[in-house]
Amino acid sequence: MRIIMPMTRDDLTCRCCRAGLQRIELHSQRGAAGDRRCPACDALLETVDGATEVVYRLMVVPERIFDARTMRALERARIRPATLM
After folding, report:
1. pTM strictly above 0.85
2. Nearest C-alpha neighbor of 21 from the set 50, 48, 42, 1
3. Helix, strand or coil, per DSSP, at residue 73
4. What is the CA radius of gyration of the chain?
5. pLDDT tens, 21-38?
6. Residues 34-60, mean pLDDT to the nearest whole number
7. pLDDT score at 61
8. Long-range contacts of range 10-19, CB-CB < 8 Å, 24 or more positions apart?
């Protein structure tokens, strides 16, 4: 006897912005075929065929990335990066 789980959940990280995402796939429901994109940066996460419903939930918002030149300018102005968020 084969048991089909009605839903699977996975945690993943966006390759572009490092946002924390939760991928939810409903096996009991058909979905729309097409691209699924990161809600934070709009990077392509995957392309689905519509056999199941696949959604992504943003769980962890990505941190801002500062390059060395920006960090030096902030230090000269005595501004901490956390105050800019």
Report:
1. no
2. 42
3. helix
4. 19
5. 999 999 989 999 999 998
6. 91
7. 79
8. 11/59, 12/45, 14/38, 14/40, 14/41, 14/43, 14/45, 14/62, 15/43, 16/41, 16/43, 17/41, 17/43, 17/62, 18/62, 18/63, 19/58, 19/60, 19/61, 19/62
Q: Which residues contact 62 (CB under 8 A, 6 or more apart)?
A: 14, 17, 18, 19, 40, 41
pLDDT for residue 16 is more than 70? yes
Task: Give the pLDDT confidence of 53-69 residue by residue, as tens digits.
Answer: 999 998 887 765 555 66
Please name which of 7, 12, 16, 8 lies closest in space to residue 59, comparing C-alpha atoms: 12
For residue 66 the two structure tokens come to 């500062």
β-strand pairing of 20-26 with 7-13: antiparallel
Q: Measure the CA–CA gap between 62 and 34, rounded to whole angstroms.
A: 25
